[in-house]
Amino acid sequence: MSQNIKIDPYGFREYDARWLYKKDINQEGIENLGKGLGTQIKNHTKKNNPNVVVGHDYRSYSEEIKASLKKGLISTGCNIEDIGLSLSPMVYFAQFNLNADAVAMVTASHNENGWTGVKMGIKKGLTHAPEEMKELKEITLNQNFSYGEGEEKQIKDFDKIYKEDLISKNKIKKKIKAVVACGNGTASIFAPEILRGIGCEVIELDCDLNWDFPKYNPNPEDLEMLHAIAESVKKNNADIGFGFDGDGDRVGVVDDQGNEIFSDKIGLLIARNLSNNHKNSKFVVDVKSTGLYSNDNILKENNCETIYWKTGHSHIKRKVNTEKALAGFEKSGHFFFNEPLGYGYDDGINSAIHVCHLLDNQNRRISEIINELPITYQTPTMAPFCKDEEKYLVVEELVEQFQELKKNKTEIDGQIITEILTVNGVRFSFVDGSWGLIRASSNKPSLVIVTESPTSDERKKKIFDFIDNLLQKTGKIGEYDQKI
Predict the structure, then answer these.
(1) Which of 246, 242, 306 is nearest to 272 (CA)?
(2) Which of 101, 194, 458, 461 has the fewest Cβ atoms within 10 angstroms?
(3) Which CATH class name applies to 160-259?
(4) Do the domains at 160-259 and 261-371 have one common CATH topology?
């Protein structure tokens, strides 16, 4: 590579690309990324001049990065349709609406300032999975670029088409009072207007665009943001609180009492609500999600099936697509609605709208609806250190050990294992619905441990102790980031 091109290979992640701008990648590096992506799009679509929708989030440097990315794409022969300041889901929507061949969204999502990145996809409604990322990395770093002459056109006011699409299909009858928090990120100019449009009374919280993020990072998993929403919900006597991340593909939910509702439980409430009108449907959830889906009486009555799948928005999106599932839910707050409810991709505003439909259909407050779910005792996601080069081997050995434990009917806290799932590490379940999970983290040198029991807090802890004991015996585990 020539001297002035900087592009850290580690920026190519499992399903998107992220770098610290200027430290790990510079403008020439971004241009090369555009050349790599353009070449990849041409190879996959077999077109000399594929159409690529491009958008950017509201950070001080996102437009200059987009300019370099477009320059690279155009040099390979791609025709650019630039829709301007966008949310990731607006770019995904544009691919359907404009019938484009691919998408590239300049965003670092909820990462702190200084970060940049690109979310990209070729097949409609899907984003790059590990195979495509590996291919993109090889083309870009080896500079195996194709050349052509592309053009660029600006699509004016596309945000209006996106907003109208969500508003027109989703009018509600009940006046729902909602706190809408955007952490001064890009969702600020979308979420309040769309939720008002469907019929909500909206109380805005940090909805002025400000790329310095003066209060906190727009991240609905961040306690600072959740606390601010909770305070505003209580002060304004609101029915619900929504928090959106930096590029608008995730939502966090706070109930009318100011309590955070974990996304896997919100997903179950939405699935129940949908199952009444969509009997015999499939839902996809990630392996970190509550076990309540598998035995839920309402889903059973409506003959619905839940599939537990690999954690990660690209994985769940693809599984929803291949299974023709109605919806998918990830514990981190990515929700996916397939036809006829959406186009299969994750859109935080559409997710919030589905929570509004849930409230619109029932004459109760969200805190009452959530209380109808069986109580479960769940650990937070715990990550013990484990070297990148060892973590997958450690998990493989544990999979074998758990298969032995099941075969030998070994008891853990007085129960035998009834089911083992190995799509993503090992998730083992018991008769009473308790379960434990051990998987390798996809982006850090660590494992991921979660346990849950509908029976007791004590059982949740006993299952964790059992896992921890097996882990310590491997001699390859370091400190936990947090522990029960």
Answers:
(1) 306
(2) 458
(3) alpha beta
(4) yes
The first and second tokens of residue 448, run together, are: 């991921």
Of 42, 90, 50, 82, nearest in space to 66 by CA: 82
- Give residue 205's identity as a one-letter amino acid code: L
Q: How far apart are CA 112 and CA 312, in angstroms?
A: 20
Q: Which residues contact 449 (CB under 8 A, 6 or more apart)?
A: 379, 381, 382, 383, 384, 436, 437, 438, 464, 467, 468, 471
- How far, in Å, CA of 250 to CA of 122, rounded? 21
**The dihedral sign for the CA sequence 455, 456, 457, 463:** negative
Q: From 3.20.20.70, 3.40.120.10, 2.40.37.10, 1.10.10.10, which CATH number describes the 9-156 domain?
A: 3.40.120.10
Q: What's the burial of 247, exposed, middle or buried (CB within 10 Å: 0-12/13-18/19+)?
A: buried
Rounded CA separation 214/219 (Å): 13
> What's the rounded Cα separation, in Å, for the pair 478 and 65?
38
The pLDDT tens digits of the residues spanning 415-453 come to: 999 999 999 999 999 999 999 999 999 778 899 999 999
pLDDT confidence of 2, banded at 50, 70, 90? low
Query: pTM for this structure?
Result: 0.91
Q: Angle, nearest 10°, between helix axes 130-142 and 27-45?
A: 120
Is residue 371 helix, strand or coil?
A: helix
For residue 298 the two structure tokens come to: 């309402």
Q: Report strand pairing: 282-286 vs 260-261.
A: unpaired
Per-residue pLDDT for 136 more than 60? yes
- Lookup result for tokens 């390798």: 440
Q: Which of the four CATH numbers 3.40.640.10, 3.30.450.40, 3.40.120.10, 3.40.50.2300 does domain 261-371 have?
A: 3.40.120.10
Angle between helices 348-361 and 158-168 (to 10 degrees): 20
Rounded mean pLDDT, 74-81: 98
